[in-house]
């Protein structure tokens, strides 16, 4: 058969199958009900308007703290509506992310509770977390100054009679799903998969430094020696009195 005829027949078959194929809906009917049945409308708004105590329990923060946080991330999270769909507002994106962080629920739970796609939920959580870090890290976790170090040491002396202490250091295993092709790198001594978190707190239990992302197999001492804090101590770049 002439190659040109083969090409024509192949093209005709493709068009035929394409017409037969059932067209997928742009928005699933569950997600289409988001404006009326999603938790942002049915739970978040009523709690905000009528029950600040339960709002705190639901969001793990007061209404005032939520509004302050929203004011910091609203602009970078704002998106324009497209011709096909309306953008999810920053307030709803923040609620979705805070519920994920506060409850430890899955993306599937967010999908059913807030009536959004699972992939959309994952994108929202990543985007909001990245935005919060970029907009607030310098204020919430600034590099300690010489004066700040003296204040931290004074706090430990006043509350615990512990002299010359610049922070309490500890590590924490954050449970995760095993990353693909990672072998036993993330398997910790308790035999589950985790990511290492190293933190330093002052005498008032406030974080002054965090380092997250180490392998679950690493011990606390390894977490410390692999951290940026250790590197800065070794290089003498910290403002230690």
UniProtKB/TrEMBL annotation:
Q: State the compartments where it is located.
A: Nucleus
Record keywords, A-Z: Hydrolase, Metal-binding, Nuclease, Nucleus
- Cellular component terms per the entry's GO annotation: nucleus
Source taxon at top rank: Eukaryota
DDE Tnp4 domain sequence ranges? 169-234
Q: InterPro entries under this entry? A: HARBI1-like, HARBI1_dom
Gene Ontology molecular functions = hydrolase activity; metal ion binding; nuclease activity
The answer to whether the entry has keyword Metal-binding is yes
**Cofactor(s) annotated in UniProt:** a divalent metal cation
Identify its protein family: Belongs to the HARBI1 family.
Q: What is this protein called?
A: DDE Tnp4 domain-containing protein
Q: From which source organism is this entry?
A: Leptobrachium leishanense (Leishan spiny toad)
């Amino acid at each position: 058969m002439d190659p040109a005829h083969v090409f024509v027949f192949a093209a005709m078959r493709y068009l035929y199958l394409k017409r037969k194929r059932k067209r997928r809906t742009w928005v699933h009917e569950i997600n289409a009900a988001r404006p009326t049945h999603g938790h942002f409308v049915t739970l978040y708004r009523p709690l905000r308007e009528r029950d600040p105590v339960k709002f705190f329990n639901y969001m793990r923060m007061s209404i005032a703290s939520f509004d302050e946080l929203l004011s910091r991330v609203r602009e970078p999270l704002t998106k324009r509506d497209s011709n096909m769909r309306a953008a999810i507002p920053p307030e709803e994106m923040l609620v979705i992310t805070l519920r994920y962080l506060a409850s430890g629920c899955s993306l599937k739970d967010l999908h059913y509770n807030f009536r959004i796609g699972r992939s959309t939920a994952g994108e929202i959580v990543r985007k909001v977390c990245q935005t919060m870090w970029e907009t607030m890290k310098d204020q919430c976790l600034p590099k300690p100054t010489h004066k700040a170090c003296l204040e931290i040491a004074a706090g430990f002396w006043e509350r615990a009679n512990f002299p010359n202490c610049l922070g309490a250091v500890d590590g924490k295993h954050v449970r995760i799903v095993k990353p693909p092709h990672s072998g036993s790198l993330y398997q910790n001594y308790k035999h589950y998969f985790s990511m290492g978190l190293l933190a330093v707190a002052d005498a008032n239990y406030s974080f002054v430094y965090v380092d997250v992302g180490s392998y679950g197999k690493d011990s606390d001492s390894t977490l410390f020696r692999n951290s940026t804090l250790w590197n800065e101590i070794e290089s003498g770049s910290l403002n230690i009195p």
